[in-house]
Amino acid sequence: MSIETGQFFIGFYVIGTMGVIGGFVGRMVCGWACPFGLLQELLHKIPSPKFNIWPFLRYGKYGLLIFMVILLPLFAIDEFGTGEPWFCKYFCPTGTLEAGIPMIFLQPALRMNLGWIFLVKIFILIVFIVWAVLASRPFCRTACPLGAFYALFSKIKLVKLSLDYNKCTHCGACHEVCPMGVRFNESPEDMECISCMSCSNVCKLNAISLEMGGLPIPGHPKEPKTKRI
Predict the structure, then answer these.
(1) How far apart are CA 6 and CA 178, in angstroms?
(2) Higher pLDDT, residue 68 or 83
């Protein structure tokens, strides 16, 4: 895949599939289908001091998407005119945990070929594991290029959480439970929202609901979550 060869060997079917998913559910994939996201949430439950993530760090994942996923594979090419999967090869802690480490145990012969790249990726993995104990979903919020890609669909996705401004009392309960640091009542179309439903579950007045194409999804409760006397 390169520009120099004059040919763009890009997996348009992959990009198209991701685009369809993004246009349908956006970053809901991150909230409901990502195993590394689940691991981070479990790690965050470990008792420890908890810290917020500086808001400006969220832009890091867009930088990684542009440079390591798109530009470097196109321009940093070898003598055969092909690029490398830079993010996967040199950075991705998810791949290290879910593929790299298991392969070493399944194929012991590979241990002889381990070098500095693998050690660097192990270090990056350890950093995010420790960070996940101290802060909520740090990889998702600061470094995941796939999350950055799906975030681009935040305003046009079909399935999304919706805020009923007439019901919302701005109590701030949704702020406290959001694993992505979203203040949903202030920015219901925030690009960081992964539609995990945590905010909806704690909203006593049902001001937050799930909708598809602007219509409420059948079965979602609409009555206030208060005890009837």
Answers:
(1) 46
(2) 68
